[in-house]
């Protein structure tokens, strides 16, 4: 099995615990919890900033001493409604008290500038289409660069319809060369509908030094340290993924694969 593919560890509690150190890179951390009602979770952020994403379920959220009340809307991620999320700065703590079964994503990266703890969604998040034809997918931008809400983290959700491609044409963001490109590490947390489904993701560089094609299943995480990283879902299934990106500059600048950039050029006309 590819070292880039992380399978869930168990079916309850913390099923993913990916740190920058365990991933072998310098910025992105990602954890995922499957919680039952009343199964409280609390953590200190230390030198990291954190975005808590209520992927599914309802929970009372407290961060940096602020009680945000009971957050959450969708009980199934494929309802596609905007997520409820909370930004938590470094050197503080957060507490989650689920009031239903809850899927909680904890996105983390180094904090170079402290922002106030704040609720990021559902206000300000709108499901929008991207791409054309079987390249069409739907985006919930949680914390991209147009929202000045974090020092490092870029976080977004993507829904890929049955039989469609996503993160396509193949693109990369693995060079610190702003404004041409930014270096951003990235994780993909995958869900499938129905949950017995599967998809595929390829991570590859133009020089062939990295070329991994993975079958992804429900609750899998894929690490993207460099290279292009398209994914696809077969007919009969929908794919969801939560992207977490971070690097030395909180900008998303990428380049399409030169052999496939004609697709983007054609669709922009």
Individual helix count: 2
What sort of overall outline do the alpha carbons produce when their principal axes are compared? globular
CATH fold-level assignment: Jelly Rolls
Topology pattern, helix = H, strand = E = EEHEEEEEEEEEEEEEEEEEEEEEH
Structural class: mainly beta
CATH class identity: Mainly Beta
CATH H-level homologous superfamily name: Jelly Rolls
Lateral arrangement of strands in the main beta sheet: 1-20-17-22-14-13-12
Radius of gyration based on Cα positions: 18 Å
**Sheet with most strands:** 7 strands, antiparallel
Percentage of helical residues? Answer: under 10%
**Chain-averaged pLDDT:** 96
The overall number of domains is 1
Q: Give the number of DSSP strands.
A: 23
Q: Tell me the fraction of residues in β-strands, as a range.
A: 35-45%
Low-confidence stretches: none
What is the topological layout?
Layout: E1 5-6, E2 13-18, H1 20-23, E3 29-35, E4 41-44, E5 48-56, E6 59-63, E7 66-71, E8 84-88, E9 93-98, E10 102-110, E11 118-119, E12 128-130, E13 137-143, E14 154-160, E15 165-166, E16 171-172, E17 185-193, E18 199-204, E19 211-216, E20 221-224, E21 231-232, E22 238-246, E23 255-256, H2 261-268
Antiparallel strand pairs: 1-20, 2-3, 3-10, 4-9, 5-8, 5-10, 6-7, 6-9, 8-11, 12-13, 13-14, 14-22, 15-21, 16-23, 17-20, 17-22, 18-19, 18-21
């Amino acid at each position: 099995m590819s070292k880039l593919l992380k399978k869930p560890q168990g079916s309850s509690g913390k099923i993913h615990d990916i740190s920058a150190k365990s991933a072998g890179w310098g910025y992105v951390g990602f954890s995922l919890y499957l919680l039952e009602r009343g199964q409280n979770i609390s953590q200190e952020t230390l030198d990291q900033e954190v975005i808590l994403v209520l992927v599914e379920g309802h929970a009372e959220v407290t961060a940096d001493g602020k009680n945000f009340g009971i957050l959450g809307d969708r009980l199934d991620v494929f309802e596609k409604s905007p997520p409820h999320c909370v930004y938590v700065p470094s050197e503080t703590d957060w507490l989650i008290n689920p009031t239903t079964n809850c899927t909680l994503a904890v996105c983390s990266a180094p904090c170079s500038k402290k922002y106030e703890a704040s609720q990021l969604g559902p206000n300000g998040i709108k499901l929008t289409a991207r791409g054309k034809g079987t390249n069409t997918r739907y985006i919930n931008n949680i914390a991209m660069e147009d929202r000045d809400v974090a020092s490092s983290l870029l976080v977004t959700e993507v829904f890929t319809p049955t039989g469609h491609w996503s993160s396509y044409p193949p693109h990369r963001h693995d060079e610190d060369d702003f404004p041409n490109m930014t270096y951003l590490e990235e994780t993909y947390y995958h869900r499938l509908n129905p949950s017995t489904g599967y998809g595929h993701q390829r991570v590859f560089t133009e020089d062939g030094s990295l070329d991994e094609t993975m079958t992804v299943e429900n609750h899998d995480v894929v690490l993207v340290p460099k290279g292009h990283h398209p994914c696809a879902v077969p007919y009969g299934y929908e794919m969801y993924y939560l992207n977490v990106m971070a690097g030395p500059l909180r900008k998303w600048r990428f380049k399409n694969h030169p052999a496939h950039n004609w697709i983007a050029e054609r669709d922009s006309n």
